[in-house]
Amino acid sequence: MDQTISFLYEKFLLSDGICTDTRALQKNQLFFALKGEHFNGNAYAEQAIASGALLAIIDEPQSSINNQFLLVDDVLTCLQQLASHHRSQFNIPFLAITGSNGKTSTKELTARVMASDRKVQYTKGNLNNHIGVPLTLLTIESDTEFVIVEMGANHLGEIATLCEIAKPTHGLITNIGSAHIGEFGGKEAIIRAKSELFDYLRKTGGVPFINLQDPVLQNMSKRFANAITYPNEWCALKSATPFVYYKDEYGDTHSTEMIGAYNFWNICAAVTIGKYFKVEDPYPAIDGYMPDNNRSQMIELGSNTIILDAYNANPDSVLAALNNLAVIKSQNRIAIIGDMKELGTYSLDEHKKVIDFAETLGLDAVYWVGNDFVNAYNHSKSKAFVKIEDLISLLQKQPLAGATVLIKGSRGMRMEQLTEHTELWT
After folding, report:
1. Model-level pTM?
2. Which of 158, 236, 272, 303 has an alpha carbon 20 to 30 Å from 381's alpha carbon atom?
3. Residue 178 burial (C-beta neighbours within 10 Å; 0-12, 13-18, 19+)
């Protein structure tokens, strides 16, 4: 092992954890001076030491450099190597979860199932990239019994790199859709990128969990002799109008707080993983899970029921959410959909497809928000707005009442702000 990582690991074991932002720094933490497009952590290294950091890891010399600073070639690479070394100290299951849609919900459900009988460490929030995965690994404590690492990607090779860092023993790809298709450069590239997780498991003898309802994943299952597949006898969808009801292997019906048939596959994955790892009763953890953070939340505003699913959006997830809205029994069903980002040259066609699909559903009203939908808009039955403020102005004059409303859009659209204007809902 590199002497620098060996020295740093000794410091890590004496520290109170990792910090990459001096605004959140606690005393006795290691400060990693990461660089980004709009920031340079090296500029805050001296401040970190003054605030009580045990050590500042930098890749640019400081004017007052001393034994409280560790100068390395590249801070990010150093962070990743330290995390990988820490991970190597554990001989426990490491489950990696990736996919175009549903990976965060599946991670949250699985974490709750596994935590019902053992100590689990898992990705918090959306820390699923080349920085977030190492930070997650470095939170693993000596008595941890199970680790879940969410992995996101928008370019080829990213999942492969994350696998080399996290060394998963088990893996799940929720599905393969069109998320980030612009960055990947096409659906085939997305398939190759997501399959990097399964490629790693094949190489290392790991165990994949495979959703046979996804035709691409079903085809991938042929590569494995040890694949664990679902759906299976442990979970069968009963209904989702709008909340998911499912049956277990004994025929008992379970009710959940999760909306839409698309969430059933996330539930089924969590149940399957729990059963595989001998969790005696995984169902209470799932049935009691309350979605939050703008992910399939159900909110009551005035006389309206809001399905707030505004954390992110891509063509597949928007089509699924619209279809779910269409099967809900309501006298007034309304969709408010914001732009889907990171579609590149596919953007116009994908936004048109979503508009055309919505037109077939018989919804009572549809509002599109953002330049991409405005550019694709060619229907008189719905309305399109360049800015969300324009829609807010309309609804302030014509508040919604007695409606079931789906609100969805990419993170950058901040569609959840509609719920912050109580005057829009009566």
Report:
1. 0.87
2. 303
3. buried
